[in-house]
Specification:
Chain lengths: 363, 467
């Protein structure tokens, strides 16, 4: 009973969100869209509804004029698995996938006119999965071939999310070249990060399909997808198994992970904590009293960090304080010596021209 | 004569005040023809704001005004519009008084030469009478105040108005004969923008003439007076520059103001000739061509001094025109200043005879520069022959400037060549205007001493051509 009750509260989250981002456009980056869609598929299959998924695809591969099989995006060659289907809800499409929009989604600083489906309405009991794929380098990820997001910006965005209590735990997965550089700078608690390659390594693509003509998936995500296909909502598989996915022999690059900011042991973290939206339902006929010592709630946030009253957005920016802190502007005045010298000269010229004897006519 | 002048002043002030209140003020203030990097009002405000923030206004290449302007506007920045209107009025009044005096001098000299029988007997129609000279000062003030170029310059609050007023005071002081004041104002004008340095020669010539000192290289009194004037000028210049040092306690203003004027780093398009050349020039040659272009401004002083030593005020006019055509950042305010003088020589276009082959005469005028008799079958005409064409060219170009600017910058269907073509045409128009006046003036002088009907040795009719 009590063990089950403990398990009930073990993970501390009550809802799941996913932010899945594909940052590259153009037909030859088909594999990035396929990556993102396969993670989307898995996440949806495991229970996270569309209203809790923010899917950002930088280009439309299914309806691309170069797609020989329109309305499909395949992840396996020979058209084994179509990850597109009839029920894909893309929230940010095409040119809306920008660094600014991505950061606004994460931090919640969204204009009031944004529809609900484009918002990340997470709270402090949300576990968020953030998956990003595209072209990247050491410390940056390229968006749409025209701008980039740096690892520092990403870390700061996560810190904003932490300070605004927008997540309980965060799983960050990135599948780009030199992906490990993107999680190097994180400094907020409760973040676990996985990357497809270390700094200095390239992530490689998996297999081309000769019928479609491009590479369909990246290796890391391909093997993650295979791994996730075995997961069902009741699986007890933990994160350590995910870390083993795609060893160097299969992936050619060395996947990396970072768990130092995470408070729980990865052994105890279920895959479904992030990839699924598992509602823990225990049917019992007996009554259970929830005392503090029974449940053993670990405080995720140390007491001093918890705000005693609910934090409002406006209070986080003490504008009044900022205004009063501005230094008073001192006006510049010309030095006295200059004024004296100038007027002495002018008076001298005046006297020289008109002579002193005229002064009595002036006064 | 005071009442019409007051009327003109009132009309000018009304026009400017009306334009200040209208929406055109912002539009005009942004035009590159009116506001150059040297005298734009935006930059003055920026420099003063930098000063309030505790930073030297000369750090960064925004502010290129002299410290005295900083001092002037530090206290008067809220009344800027009033200041510029008053400056324009002062310039006009100074020009009025100067030309009034100058007319008296001219008339006296004319009378003297007639009595000394220096003039040929048949030139009665060329002599200026006091009747027609009576309204010239008013016309000068009118030309300056109601010139659209001046009005635009004032509405844009370009400090060119202040430069013009200093030069006007310098001209007033010179014509009144006060060497000290003239040197002080010339030093101030040179301090403001470097080019009035070339006005030293005409001022010196005029003062020498006034003191009846003959201009001979061997004459001791000539050198003595020259030295006196030059030392007055240099001393006042040094004093003003040292005084400016004490405003900000740094010599920053010298590279920012004079270095900027001489080395032309900012290539924003304007109505001058520098920007296009230097925009397309390789860096290797830019120093050489900067020197060439700058020498071009100062170069005409000596030949003109030799030719026009009897007519220093005309020399001053031509020199002013040359400065405003060839300076590194000209604006229409500079053009307005020398245009104000055109009524003084309005007697040069009294006769409207037929037009000859304009192109041929233009080329001839531009190529050579001394008089020669030649056998052309035409009646004598010292008329300003190209005035109609040139005024059309100038007016046309003034209207085409904003059109081609719009096409180049906003519509994107033209490029800088279009705008530069108009700049070139405008400057060619100005040059032709000046050379026309120059030619007509010299011709009139020649006719005065040699008579209207020129004959060659064999008795056939002859024609003066500037070769």
């Amino acid at each position: 009973f009590q063990d089950q009750a403990e398990q009930f509260f073990r993970s501390g989250h009550t809802n799941n969100w996913a932010v899945l981002v594909c940052t590259s456009r153009f037909w030859f980056n088909y594999r990035h869209v396929a990556n993102t869609l396969s993670v989307y598929r898995s996440v949806k299959r495991l229970g996270i509804p569309d209203s809790h998924i923010v899917l950002m695809l930088a280009d439309d591969m299914a309806c691309n004029p170069r797609n020989p099989k329109p309305a499909t995006v395949f992840s396996h060659k020979n058209m084994e698995l179509n990850v597109y289907g009839d029920d894909v809800e893309v929230d940010y499409r095409s040119y809306e996938v920008t660094v600014e929009n991505f950061l606004r989604v994460l931090t919640g600083r969204i204009p009031p006119s944004t529809p609900r489906s484009k918002r990340l309405l997470s709270d402090d009991r949300s576990n968020i999965l953030i998956y990003m794929t595209g072209h990247g380098g050491n410390g940056f990820l390229k968006f749409q071939d025209s701008e980039e997001i740096t690892n520092v910006e990403l870390a700061d965005a996560f810190e904003q999310m932490w300070q605004k209590r927008r997540y309980n735990e965060l799983l960050f997965i990135i599948d780009t070249c030199q992906g490990a550089s993107m999680y190097e700078r994180f400094y907020s608690p409760n973040i676990m990060a996985l990357a497809s390659s270390q700094v200095g390594e390239d992530s490689l693509s998996h297999q081309p399909d000769l019928g479609i003509g491009v590479h369909l998936m990246d290796r890391y995500t391909f093997y993650v997808l295979e791994f996730l296909e075995e997961i069902h909502p009741a699986s007890q598989t933990n994160m350590n198994d995910l870390f083993q996915v795609c060893p160097k022999s299969l992936c050619v690059s060395t996947p990396g992970h970072r768990t130092d900011l995470f408070q729980r042991d990865p052994q105890n973290v279920l895959i479904t904590d992030f990839f699924g939206s598992v509602r823990k339902v225990e049917i019992t006929a007996a009554a259970l009293s929830l005392d503090r010592d029974v449940v053993g709630l670990e405080s995720k946030f140390p007491e001093e960090e918890l705000a005693t009253e609910p934090l409002k957005y406006a209070e986080q920016l003490p504008v009044a304080q900022i205004i009063h802190q501005k230094p008073k502007q001192k006006d510049w005045h010309p030095p006295g010596g200059f004024i004296l010298g100038l007027w002495a000269l002018i008076i001298m010229v005046f006297f020289k021209t008109y002579g002193i004897k005229h002064m009595k006519h002036v006064f | 004569m005071a009442a019409p002048l007051v009327l003109v002043v009132l009309a000018a002030v009304t026009v400017r005040a009306a334009l200040y209140r209208s929406s055109l003020a912002v539009f005009i203030a942004e035009r590159v023809e009116v506001a150059s990097p040297l005298n734009a009002w935006k930059r003055v405000v920026e420099g003063l704001a930098l000063l309030d923030l505790g930073v030297s206004p000369y750090s960064g290449a925004i502010f290129h005004e002299t410290p005295l302007i900083i001092y002037l506007f530090h206290f008067l920045i809220e009344y800027a519009e009033l200041v510029f209107m008053i400056t324009d009025v002062l310039t006009a009044v100074a020009l009025y008084l100067a030309i009034q005096d100058f007319n008296k001098v001219v008339f006296k000299k004319q009378k003297l030469l007639i009595e000394l029988d220096k003039y040929a007997p048949d030139v009665a129609e060329l002599i200026q009478t006091p009747m027609e000279m009576h309204y010239i000062p008013l016309k000068v003030a009118l030309f300056y105040l109601l010139n659209p170029y001046t009005v635009m310059s004032c509405v844009a609050k370009s400090t060119c108005a202040i430069n013009n007023s200093v030069i006007a005071f310098f001209i007033l002081a010179t014509i009144k004969g006060s060497a000290f004041l003239s040197a002080v104002f010339l030093a101030l004008a040179t301090y403001q923008s470097l080019y009035p340095l070339t006005l030293f020669a005409p001022a010196l010539l005029y003062l020498l003439q006034r003191q009846f000192i003959p201009i001979k290289l061997k004459s001791k009194s000539f050198w003595l007076y020259t030295m006196q004037y030059a030392s007055l000028y240099l001393c006042s210049l040094v004093v003003i520059i040292c005084l400016s040092f004490f405003l900000l306690n740094s010599w920053d203003f010298i590279p920012s103001v004079y270095g900027f004027i001489l080395s032309v780093p900012d290539l924003t398009p304007n109505i001058g000739l520098f920007w296009y050349f230097f925009a397309e020039m390789f860096e290797h040659f830019s120093l050489f061509f900067v020197c060439v272009f700058q020498i071009n401004v100062f170069f005409y002083t000596i030949p003109l001094a030799i030719k026009l030593k009897e007519h220093p005020v005309f020399f001053m006019f031509v020199q002013l025109a040359i400065i405003s055509i060839f300076k590194s950042y000209p604006t229409v305010g500079d053009v307005a200043l020398y245009m104000a003088f055109l009524p003084v020589w309005s007697h040069l276009y009294r006769y409207y005879l037929f037009y000859e082959n304009l192109l041929q005469s233009c080329i001839l005028q531009m190529l050579h520069s001394h008089l020669r008799l030649c056998n052309l079958n035409s009646a004598p005409a010292f008329v300003l022959r190209n005035i109609f064409i040139l005024s059309c060219v100038l007016i046309f170009c003034s209207f085409l400037f904003p059109v081609l600017w719009h096409l180049w910058i906003y519509a994107g269907s033209a490029n800088s060549n279009f705008y530069y073509a108009i700049t070139l045409t405008f400057n060619i128009g100005q040059i032709l205007l000046i050379s026309d006046y120059f030619y007509a003036f010299l011709r009139r002088e020649y006719y005065l001493t040699h008579g209207l009907h020129l004959t060659r040795q064999d008795g056939t009719e002859a024609m003066l051509v500037l070769k």
